[in-house]
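re: that chain from earlier
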Amino acid sequence: MVRENVRRAGKKGNRMGKFEKRFGKYAIRDLSLILIICYAIGYVLAFIDGRSGSNFLGYLTLDPYAILHGQIWRLFTWILIPPGSLDPFTIIMLFFYYSIGTSLERTWGTYRYNVYLFSGMLFTILGSFLWMGLDLESVTQSEVSQKEKNKY
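^ sequence. v structure.
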């Protein structure tokens, strides 16, 4: 039993190794720093939005309804949205994020760290579409129940 589990884990690890040999040359080094720079760009955009009174940052959010209606850039630009207001705790969080990210990249390797972050981004996008589907279903059910109430 234990040998089978070890053998299976070895095959999965071997599969990841094959992908790493094939696609490892495309891995992005210092991806944590790039993400923090994206957040910094987001803070600058938020500052400009606050000054000008426009809602430019609103066009960059991950909105599945807008994506389905042709605003494909939202699949990528949501990464620019900063995590919150720029205060000392956020700056400490970004330093911590950089520290943990570089440690993971050193430990796992650049390719596996890229897979980790990009799969997290992909599942975030899929989750938002799933959430939109559940939200639409609840809206549809509430409309049906409202029509049933109006019937009587």
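Confidence is low (pLDDT under 50) at residues 1-7.
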